[in-house]
Design a protein that fits this description.
The chain has about 160 residues and is mainly β. The chain has a single domain, classed as Sandwich (Jelly Rolls). The protein is about 10% helix and about 45% strand. The strands form two sheets. It has a five-stranded antiparallel sheet with strand order 1-2-9-4-7, with no helix packed on it. Strand 5 and strand 6 form a beta hairpin. The radius of gyration is 21 Å and the shape is globular. The protein starts with a helix and ends in a 6-residue tail after the last strand. About 10% of the residues have low confidence.
């Protein structure tokens, strides 16, 4: 019994030393990711998320909203750094689209509002796409989304 305890303790002590030594705490520059700036309940029936989304060139970052039929969503976004991005909202089809072009038209901000419908489905995708692929420019966008408390929001934990 004591022998098993000593072996278990030795293994537990060695795991942090050997098992985790290869894990890097630095994010790769190719990763995209959100930073939740603020999350708040607005009255008992509404909630709000404010996110900073960082993307390298030619990457896309999706945010999923699970909504009920008739739920209303409002929000806005703006580009915080240099770069060029597209933003669109999709249900079963495109609901909102703000596109940058290679001819110099840049998207710097936008406001959106929509109501969930049964025809569009129950899951909506809000997507940012950094279109500065050749330059590998890092773009940071701010996003605020206000939606019913009965809804849910999901972001990727890590993108490759």
């Amino acid at each position: 019994m004591i022998k098993r305890f000593i072996i278990a303790a030795a293994v537990l002590l060695l795991i942090p030393v050997y098992g985790c030594s290869a894990i890097s705490m630095n994010k790769s520059p190719s990763l995209v990711g959100p930073e939740i700036i603020r999350k708040a309940e607005l009255a008992p029936n509404w909630q709000m998320y404010q996110l900073d989304v960082q993307m390298m060139g030619s990457t896309e970052f999706p945010i999923l909203l699970k909504l009920n039929d008739g739920d209303r969503v409002d929000g806005y976004f703006y580009l915080e750094t240099e770069g060029n991005l597209d933003f669109h909202i999709m249900g079963n089809s495109v609901i909102y689209k703000s596109e940058a072009t290679s001819e110099g038209r840049k998207v710097t901000s936008g406001r959106f509002s929509f109501s969930a419908t049964q025809a569009q489905g129950s899951t909506y995708t809000l997507s940012f796409h950094n279109v500065d692929g050749e330059k590998q420019t890092k773009a940071t966008a701010f996003l605020e989304v206000i939606y019913p408390a009965s809804g849910s929001i999901f972001t990727p934990l890590e993108a490759k």
